């Protein structure tokens, strides 16, 4: 199995990406890496970080797509960019079933949607991060958090089915509990789109628990939270902003609290560290774009080696768990019923 | 000035409401209270909590609207409810310029919209809580967080103008910084509604800073955050859920962390308390419904006396600051320009 990695995507690329590749290769067997980007730089960094050359192939790509580029334009013009090369390899090689990039989200999403094949029957793919659940060690899939700002109710139903299939296959959740993110938990809540989606979800062949509020996303009461990409994105970042904000307030309080507070901090340091690790979903891998024939993992733009490594191992896990095939099965049943 | 208070709204009513009224009366002069609800119960509780009888008028209302009632139906059928009586008093008395309820949000919103007069030119009112800013002592107004799930772009522009007028009048912010909540901070982000609203906001007579992400709502970089009621509600509750979740994790960590962690907690207790007080916007009053000729404050359903007291004093402050008149001015300018 080959995992394609965009060596020049992300704020800390290429250094942290190559370091992350090296970490992943040391950690697990059973896969090789294809790195796209400036060949000489990659070779030098591989040397520096002691990256296993036997398991890495380099595809030269002299151009880089940045966050300042307009996605559609950049994808058309920078055909020799590290990102576009990833898509090319996925299209050309049967054995390359997944890719990881920490580059521009806009370009990665647009590129994947335009250049990669969709699973038959899927209207639009959805971008899905895995978030930590507060009350247990589970993860919660939030789908979609930015692939489509104005989805149709049918898109939401497909997100629910794909998320459900994913959580069964990868997280081994027997009967994933699916909720629809809304402005209240009562059945009558929702905007026009959600009200329509609610009725469709009730009839779908999933374990649909109904509407949920923003406060319950990471509660642990749901395995899959379905949202339109606009409010899903807002919710995700609101959670992130609040978590960072509270940690900042704690830090400020400790700094201003004198010796007493500093001593308290030392005693609680391991507790804080555990919580930070739990809440920092970026460190636990990236968001997966579901609905395509290949697995695309979008790591956070600020990803460091640890996070890139996690994304690579996540990609391997998803291919091993046959996520694409499982989604194909679910969607095929749907299409055959409609025939 | 009379402030009308729904004595039978909220999970802890009527006890905590009467206690809150008593607190508010002790704290400030210059206003009186009209309490609606079961007269005898109110009288007994006023006696118990030492409530100043001279400054309280009771309007008997034997019925109660609960969270289990369907708002529109309950408003029509329970005309003798404590909530409907509040609206009646606001409509009948010139001197009653504001009301406070901790009852059903659905019924309070629907009732206010249906039964109270709107400010001339306002298409729809917006529900606006005041949130704590992380980096300073400011408050951030989030408007709307649930009054309309599917607003038109023009509604968002009016929310921006009302929020701006409010922050000028009440929080004394000279030139309130207004942002549009979106799925990214770039100008090109947004769903169809927001993209249209963005263009209108650029031309509006406010200090519009552009789109903001969910993570920046409570950053302190904005005074007014404009949102559609659907994603505004989701964002608000996502912030709330994350804050509660982190406090729970800290508590669990301390409980499991043995003596060392417990000692650490004792030393940091005052820091935690400060943060909890700062983050708990419910304790700092309620959400205000802007766009009506009277001020309606919706306290959290779980409000206790302290929160009811804060909402009452907030209502007084808003009437003193002539919020309704200030909004009328802004909207009048708008209408006259369009003529």
The number of distinct structural domains of chain A comes to 2
Write down the CATH class of the largest domain in chain A.
Answer: Alpha Beta
Biggest interface, residues from each chain: A-B, 60 and 60 residues
Tell me the number of strands of chain A: 12
User: How many helical stretches of chain A?
Assistant: 11
Oligomer: homodimer
What integer value in Å does the Rg of chain A equal?
21 Å
- Strand count, sense and closure of the main sheet of chain A? 7 strands, mixed
Q: Return the structural class of chain A.
A: alpha/beta
What ranges of chain A have pLDDT less than 50 throughout 5 or more consecutive residues? Answer: none
Helix content of chain A: 40-55%
**CATH homologous superfamily designation of the largest domain in chain A:** Isopropylmalate Dehydrogenase
N-to-C order of helices and strands of chain A = EHEHEHHEHEEEHEHEEHHEEHH
Categorize the overall geometry of chain A: globular
CATH topology of the largest domain in chain A: Isopropylmalate Dehydrogenase
Mean pLDDT of chain A: 94
Can you name the CATH architecture of the largest domain in chain A?
A: 3-Layer(aba) Sandwich
Distance between the termini of chain A: 36 Å
**Percent of residues in beta strands of chain A:** 15-25%
Kindly report the spatial arrangement of strands forming the biggest sheet of chain A.
3-2-1-4-12-11-5
């Amino acid at each position: 199995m080959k995992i394609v990695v965009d060596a020049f995507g992300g704020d800390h690329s290429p250094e942290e990406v190559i370091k992350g590749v090296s970490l992943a290769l040391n950690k697990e067997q059973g896969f090789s890496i294809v790195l796209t980007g400036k060949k000489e730089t990659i070779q030098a960094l591989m040397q520096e970080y002691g990256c296993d050359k036997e398991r890495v192939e380099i595809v030269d790509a002299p151009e880089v797509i940045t966050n300042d580029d307009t996605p559609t334009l950049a994808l058309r013009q920078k055909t020799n960019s590290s990102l576009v090369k990833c898509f090319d390899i996925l299209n050309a090689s049967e054995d390359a079933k997944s890719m990881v990039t920490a580059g521009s989200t806009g370009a990665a999403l647009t590129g994947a949607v335009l250049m990669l094949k969709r699973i038959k029957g899927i209207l639009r793919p959805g971008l899905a991060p895995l978030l930590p659940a507060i009350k247990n060690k589970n993860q919660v899939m939030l789908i979609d958090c930015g692939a489509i700002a104005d989805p149709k109710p049918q898109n939401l139903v497909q997100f629910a089915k794909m998320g459900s299939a994913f959580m069964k296959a990868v997280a081994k959740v027997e009967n994933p509990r699916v909720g629809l993110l809304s402005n209240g938990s009562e059945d009558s809540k929702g905007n026009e789109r959600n009200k329509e989606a609610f009725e469709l979800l009730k009839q779908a062949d999933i374990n649909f628990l109904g509407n949920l509020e923003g406060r319950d996303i990471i509660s642990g009461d749901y395995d899959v939270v379905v949202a339109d990409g606009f409010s899903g994105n807002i919710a995700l970042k609101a959670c992130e902003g609040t978590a960072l904000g509270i940690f900042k307030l704690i830090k400020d309080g400790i700094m201003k609290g004198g010796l007493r507070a500093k001593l308290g901090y030392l005693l609680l340091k391991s507790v804080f560290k555990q919580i930070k690790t739990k809440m920092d979903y970026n460190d636990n891998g990236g968001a997966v774009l579901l609905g395509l024939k290949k697995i695309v993992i979008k790591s956070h733009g600020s990803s460091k080696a640890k996070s890139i490594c996690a994304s690579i191992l996540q990609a391997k896990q998803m291919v091993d768990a046959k996520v694409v095939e499982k989604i194909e099965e679910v969607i095929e049943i749907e299409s055959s019923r409609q025939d």
